[in-house]
Amino acid sequence: MAINLEKGQRINLEKSSGQKLTRFMVGCNWGALTTTKKVEIVDSEGFLGIGRKTHFENKTEEVDLDIDLSCVMVDDNGQLVDTLYSPLYNKNIYPKFFVKHFPSLPKGKDWSDDKSMFHTPDDTEGDKGGDDGLDNEIITVDLTKVNTKISQMFFFLDIFSPEGVDFKQVPYAAIRMCEYEGTQEDIKRITNVFAQYDVANDPQFSGKNALILGKLYRKDREWKFNAIGDAFDHSDSGMYNSNLCLTIKKILTSYTQ
Fold first, then answer.
1. How many domains in the chain?
2. Which helix H or strand E contains 37, and what residues bound it?
3. CATH number of the domain that 13 lies in?
4. CA 242, CA 30: separation in Å to the nearest integer?
5. DSSP secondary structure string, 76-108?
6. Is residue 197 part of a domain?
């Protein structure tokens, strides 16, 4: 049974057989936003527009919600080794905003440099029509391929759009840490859910659009997971929702030691 993670909680990533874990993934599933607005309904057009009768009703619509799952990897000294975030940032956001805050930040990509980590395509909408039970974005890790320089991997979420949305407004958002079968690009089956977060509709996330989930870290030649669960408002004057670059800077300055 999966552990419902709490802030500061640590878990051992072990198979039930006692074998060392080699395949690890973080998946995030979330729902599109629901909005309600008044629309005018025509009851009768009348004659040549004379005597036209209407009334107003509330209409519910689903709006795209773009949440990004990302990861940064650091060495024993807390220095950045690699990053993994959506390459969709590269065209406009990276040169306009990221370079200003963090000139040395690598561009977004699907694979880590050591080919140990893979990021599935960016989901810019969220689930519509209800929870489909599937992860919208996934990062898979082959722990046997991780660069020996890397001692910690931090996983985090940022709300990219629409403007002004925080995690408390998200209909549902669930993050789970699992083992998987198949390849990093083609997961065949989830075999073991180690732990999960439910991060939507929580009062503590009001006004917060960035969330540091937790970290994988090496200890005694084994990988363990530590839940962090800290949320922030990482908007700036140019980006009204979370500036992913600021989340990365926060991790490097406050969480790597």
1. 1
2. strand 33-44
3. 2.60.60.30
4. 17
5. TTS-EEEEE--GGGTTTHIIIIIHHH-TTPPPP
6. yes
217-253: pLDDT as tens digits: 998 888 888 888 889 999 988 888 999 999 999 999 9
Residue 53 lies in a domain: no
Identify the three-state secondary structure at position 248: helix
Amino acid sitting at position 114: D
Range of the domain at 101: 3-33+64-254
Single out the residue of 209, 233, 239, 246 nearest to residue 93, CA to CA.
239
Determine how β-strand 152-161 pairs with β-strand 173-182. Answer: unpaired
Instruction: Judge if the upstream peptide bond of residue 203 is cis by omega within 30 degrees of 0.
Output: no
Instruction: Return the closest-CA partner of residue 173 out of 25, 66, 60, 62.
Output: 66
Q: DSSP letter at 95? A: I
Q: What is the pTM of this model?
A: 0.87
Name the pLDDT band for 174 (thresholds 50, 70, 90): confident
Residue 42 is assigned to a structural domain of this protein: no
